[in-house]
Specification:
It is built from 9 helices and no strands. It is an all-alpha fold. The longest helix has 23 residues, at 146-168. It holds the Pfam family CMD.
Length: 202
């Protein structure tokens, strides 16, 4: 990584239990948390925002949320984000094809109309060579409520923040999935239990 880790006892007391829970759950502390933890107030803010966006009562389905986070991570070349979010997607979707096809989703047949539209919007928001058009927004409103669109836009924007932070600081994958390339997602999956994937990871 381009910024060094500190030893755990150098972080504020209110952050350390977060790291201990990660170690019990994953067998290791997740690298992004160690970096965000250098600025404790940013750490707390990012963790709270992620928890709100990925809450159980979100109007967006868990599978849709994971599709969006993986696709943003692929576009932004975030090896860590693709790794851990692909693991979560596989568990939520229980469908290997949705994981494997995501880097070329437009040609794939395994996604629903809602998922395809959300992925098209994800591309338009994330990529610098395209823009969100009125026509695309009209099609979104045919499928999603305006409240849903705000949630979706917030999730895409957050994942751009997270993945660009991790990519800029060269945060590596930590072995949740076997990835041939950070832009492509997993081929073989050795996934961990992510029933509580509310950690600062994505």
């Amino acid at each position: 990584m381009r910024v060094s880790e500190k030893s755990l006892n150098e972080y504020p007391l209110f952050i350390r239990p977060f790291f201990w829970r990660q170690r019990r759950k994953y067998g290791q502390v997740l690298k992004p948390g160690l970096l965000w933890g250098r600025s404790p107030w940013l750490f707390a803010t990012v963790a709270l925002l992620y928890g709100a966006l990925d809450r159980r009562r979100s109007p967006l389905t868990p599978v849709l949320r994971s599709l969006v986070t993986v696709r943003v991570s692929q576009i932004n070349w975030c090896a860590f984000c693709v790794d851990i979010n692909s693991n979560t997607l596989l568990q939520r979707a229980n469908a290997q094809d949705k994981v494997d096809a995501l880097s070329h989703w437009a040609e794939a047949t395994c996604y629903s109309q809602e998922e395809r539209l959300a992925l098209e919007y994800t591309e338009a928001v994330t990529r610098s060579d395209v823009q969100v058009t009125d026509e695309l927004m009209k099609r979104l409103k045919d499928v999603f409520s305006e409240d849903d669109i705000v949630e979706l836009t917030g999730l895409i924007a957050f994942q751009n923040l997270s993945s660009k932070f991790n990519a800029a600081l060269d945060v590596p994958a930590q072995g949740f999935c076997q990835l041939p390339d950070p832009s492509l997602g997993p081929v073989n999956t050795n996934f961990v239990d992510s029933a509580e994937i509310k950690d600062l990871h994505s």
